[in-house]
Amino acid sequence: MKLLYDLLATPLDFGESPLQTLVLESPLLYRAFLSELFAQTEGGEGSLVFSEDGSPIPAHKYVEAIPDCFHLGFAEDKRILTPLYKQLALIATHDLTTETYRLYSTVQQYLGELLALADTELCFDEINDIAPLLKLYHVRPDTQGMTLAEEILLCLELCLRFTDKRLFVFCNLHGCFSEEEWRSFLCDLRYRQISVLFVEQHDCPAFPGEQKNILDADACQI
Questions:
Q1: With 90 as the cut, is the pLDDT of residue 183 above it?
Q2: N or C: which end of the chain has fewer CB within 10 A?
Q3: 3-class DSSP state for residue 127?
Q4: Are 66 and 16 in contact (CB under 8 A)?
């Protein structure tokens, strides 16, 4: 995937360098770029051009912009939970067949006994589907005890697995990490071959495997 930004001399090529950093030292330029990016990833119009094999592609389908690394939200994201529940339902049906139908039978027997004690005539639907139970118990990706880097990596891997997203964009993420943590984080991203654009306001030393472009306070590329 490539990103054409009219203030850069050449497109950002994520096929060539999956980890790209764009430093926008002008606050106005930083705000304008992110406003346009978020608008396009939400289905709006904009001048940023994302392409694959020379053809433009819709940002809202293939690009995920993450404004807040401390509230990733993927544990509540239906785009991830829905296919995850379908996967668990298949496991319940094929690998835990006996246990699953025993569970259905036990639940229905319990409901029958419970409703029989009520002072109102009640009924219920027989549901042979594990998904309502998964929702009831709020089954979700477990991030307890994870570092920030581990949680972000899990989020990106789940998005790649269950959605069409192929590029992820973070804002001022570098400042949340020490140099050693950042180096390790970039290594993990490279190992997993995940394409990421880091949009930063301040320049930091480049790390191995990181391609950097800088636009100064006058919007000149340096």
A1: yes
A2: C
A3: coil
A4: no
Beta strands in 127-166 (DSSP E): none
- pLDDT tens, residue by residue, 100-126: 999 999 999 999 999 999 999 999 998
CA distance 160 to 163: 6
């301040």: which residue's tokens? 202
Beta bridge partners, 196, equal: 19, 168
The pLDDT, as a whole number, for residue 30 is 96
Give the global pTM. 0.89
| 202 in Cβ contact with 8 (< 8 Å) | no
Q: How far apart are CA 217 and CA 211, in angstroms?
A: 20
Question: What separation in angstroms does the CA of 36 have from each of 2, 119, 129, 171, 188?
Answer: 17, 60, 42, 13, 29
